[in-house]
Design brief:
- This protein has 3 helices and 5 strands.
- It has 205 residues and is an alpha+beta fold.
- 13% of the residues are buried.
Length: 205
């Protein structure tokens, strides 16, 4: 009976236990890359929670803060108050025109001018109309100089007239501010002062 030949005699090396177990061990611990497997190692997409936490890592970037709400739009502009010229006629004359006219004439060197506002007949020579209209009557030098501004329409934007006299009733009724499209307080004051100055009644006249 022939003797069995072992691996050493035949020049072969017997496989070790590790070599015999390596394929199965490798397969268990290194699965195929063809199948995705979750990993606990941090990646670029899933950073280490401790590294991204500012409470633990002082070098971690602070979380982005929400942008402040857009500032509220400023409130709409307040509407302009109505112009003084829009006041009712009588209120405008008494509250606005007479005080402004008194001041303007005084600044021209006539501090004693007397101004009144009344509804009466036209004080004109040869003018027999019984119709009354609102008038501003101004006088000084004990009534030796007097002027009248007429408002037959009771409206500063309507027809207006002017007359003046020195010690007697006026004989002429002049148109006053007939070419202006819009009448304002300043215009009523300045044009009347201009007319009185043309009469040489103001200043050193």
């Amino acid at each position: 009976m022939a003797e069995e030949t072992n691996h050493n005699q035949a020049g072969e090396v017997a496989p070790s236990t590790v070599d015999q177990q390596a394929p199965s061990v490798a397969e268990e611990n290194a699965p195929s890359r063809d199948e995705p497997v979750a990993s606990s190692l941090p990646t670029a997409n899933t950073p280490d929670p401790k590294a991204a936490n500012p409470a633990v890592n002082p070098n971690a970037a602070a979380p982005a803060q929400e942008k402040p709400a857009a500032a509220a739009k400023p409130a709409a502009k307040k509407e302009k108050p109505p112009a003084v010229e829009d006041k009712p006629f009588e209120e405008f004359i008494q509250q606005e025109y007479l005080p402004a006219l008194q001041k303007a004439i005084a600044q021209e060197g006539v501090p004693d001018v007397q101004l009144t506002f009344a509804k009466q007949k036209y004080p004109l020579v040869g003018f027999n109309s019984a119709e009354e209209c609102w008038q501003i009557i101004g006088s000084w030098q004990n009534g030796q100089r007097q002027f009248n501004v007429y408002f037959p329409d009771a409206d500063i934007q309507g027809q207006k007239g002017f007359s003046c006299n020195e010690g007697k009733k006026p004989s002429t009724l002049e148109s006053f501010l007939i070419d202006e499209r819009k009448i304002t307080l300043d215009l009523l004051v300045s044009r009347l002062v201009y007319r009185l100055n043309g009469q040489k009644w103001l200043g050193r006249n």
